[in-house]
Amino acid sequence: MADVGTICNPERSCAIVEDDGLQAAFTVAHELGHVFNMLHDNSQPCRELNSHSGATRRVMAPVLSSLEPGQMWSPCSARFITDFLDNGHGRTRHGGVPPPEWLRLPSALPGSVYPLLRQCQLAFGPDSRHCGDLQPPCAALWCTGHVGGRPVCQTKHFPWADGTPCAPGSVCMEGLCVGAGRVQELTVSPGAGGMVGGGGVHPPALV
Question: Cα(85)–Cα(72) distance, rounded to whole angstroms?
């Protein structure tokens, strides 16, 4: 949950996001998009801007499920944030550029830090385990759970975390199992972090 276009308001430049596993990062991106003045991709102002784009699974979709690898932001999102910043909202209150230490990110991919068991526990609770062989490796994270007291396998439509081992000498990247030699190429590409998803539990609607 976030207000739209409030990045320069110290009392409203924030968002509320439920931590439901590693995929919460994409919900954070969605809500920060609102703070930077982006609308949902199906809103009236966005329909014409997005009409020539065949892809509909973008970060600012009203329901965040599987995203287009390499095309995570829609033309409408690009237009709205560009206009917002060009109109003067990109100036910082403190002036200048943030110190470099603010921008440092971990170099390890999340899947190399969080094994499948932990990814399931973060998404579905401490008793959850990985359900194997429901889809090709990396395509969607399926985990155990209970519905009406009965054991089930469930998914939130997100792939295994990038860097998760999926075969000897291979890891997951953008929902695919690729040779470790391709990891460097994909992590520096503009589309790194894209996703493909599966089916199962309906993802949450976003506001």
Answer: 20
Dist CA 21 CA 122 (whole Å) = 4
Contacts of 136 (CB under 8 A, 6+ apart): 177
Q: Which residue has the tokens 């998914």?
A: 155
Q: What is the pLDDT of residue 101?
A: 67
3 state SS of 179: strand
Q: Are 12 and 59 in contact (CB under 8 A)?
A: no
CA 52-192-188 angle, 5° bins:
120
Does 30 appear as a known binding residue? yes
What is the pTM (predicted TM-score) of this model? 0.68
Residues 73-100 pLDDT 10s: 888 999 988 988 888 776 655 555 666 6
CA 117, distance to chain mean position in Å, is: 20
Say which residues have a Cβ less than 8 Å from residue 55's Cβ, sequence separation at least 6: 68, 71, 74
Is the pLDDT at 9 greater than 80? The verdict is no
CA 2 to chain centre: 16
Domains of the chain (ranges; CATH) run 24-103 (3.40.390.10), 110-187 (3.40.1620.60)
Active site residue 31: yes
Q: Assign 3-state DSSP to the chain and report helix, strand, coil percentages, each to 5.
A: 30, 15, 60
Q: Which of 11, 18, 31, 101 is labelled catalytic?
A: 31
Listed residue (69, 84, 45, 15) closest to 191, CA to CA:
69
Please give the single-letter amino acid code of residue 46. C
